[in-house]
Amino acid sequence: MALINKNDIETLLNVQNNTQNALCISIYIPTHRAGKETLNGQDHILFKNKIREARNLLQRHDVPEAEIEEYMKPAEELLNDNNFWRHQAEGLAVFITKGYSAHYTLPITMPDVVYVLDQFYITPMLPILSQNGRFFILCLYREKIGFFEATIEKIRPIDISSFVPESMNESLKFDVKGNDQDFNTSRTTVNGTNILGNPSGFSKGDQQHDRVREFLNDVDNSLQKILHDAHEPLVLAGIDHYCAIYRKTSNYKNIVPENVPVDENADLINIKNIHEKALEIVKPMMQQSHTESLTRYQNVAGTGATSEDIATVAAEAVHGRVDTLFIAPSEPVWGSYNAKSATAEIHSEYQRGDDDLINLAATKTLAQGGKVFVSSYNGLAESSNGGASVKALFRY
């Protein structure tokens, strides 16, 4: 299960920029985890309709039928993967161009849309990629190591079983005796090193601490396979002792200071409860970050360090000048960027080669390390004089 992140946006940008004479197909649909919609194949049927719509759009671009078949082959393969449709979340995004395809299951509901453009269209995913979009939860239980992707409204488990041991008990050979725990004296392997139980000169308490630290360090290294250089907050849930060890040894840069204390017997499978407790920690942080960024914008508004003109914002984003971007949901603003004049212009309706300038501004801002806030997401909204759909704070 792939997690969409900034690296993926950079990949999409590189693919579209390096693929000559090719169109980029972006398909979004809302999906369902379970229920009658899943049983009735509603998501599968909707995706089939989106494939048909994409084919029609390719025909409007005068693409020969043989090329259309080649374009749509990855989508058809996904359509026919019955197992894939049994494991959906709230939304699905699919990106296809010549020689490339990628898809992502998403923790928020997606619109029912298809775009066939010269660029990939990522605007519907901005609520996830924005500063106030999502966070992660790592549950450090003896009986179960769990990793979750979460937003204000939703939480979903991420399968990490292929590269992280399922439990500490399994990996470290805990003996559980009532409410106490001890190590047995069997040989176990951590990071390829054989460790004997209770070696001479070490107390069982020392041994437990060292082995737990090794195990949690292994978990942290393994999680980098999916986190990469993600910036989203990571909330730890578990016994204080385990969380403290993980926080001290982890390489992840944005572990929140406060962890979610748990009763392992009561909370082991209560994902909803863990989500609610994590929100109590994370939501104020998101609101504070948004408020501070908006205050910075307002303090210099009208001095030339900001803009609410989408053509100006899009051009400055291409130049790498946008530090913080605020976006309010709107219809696409079609236009184009002229590299020779280093300016962008708005078109009253779509023209071949156009990009949604909001999409352009957001992708360039994210790819170059800027912050993006979606104003109507997670209950974080700012006033907008004149109803501008974007606000940008420039770096210089």
UniProtKB/TrEMBL annotation:
Origin species: Pontibacter actiniarum
Annotated Pfam families: baeRF_family3 (PF18845)
Official protein name in the record: Uncharacterized protein
Cross-referenced InterPro entries: Bact_RF_family3 (IPR041289)
Lineage, uppermost ranks: Bacteria, Pseudomonadati, Bacteroidota, Cytophagia, Cytophagales
Domain of life (superkingdom): Bacteria
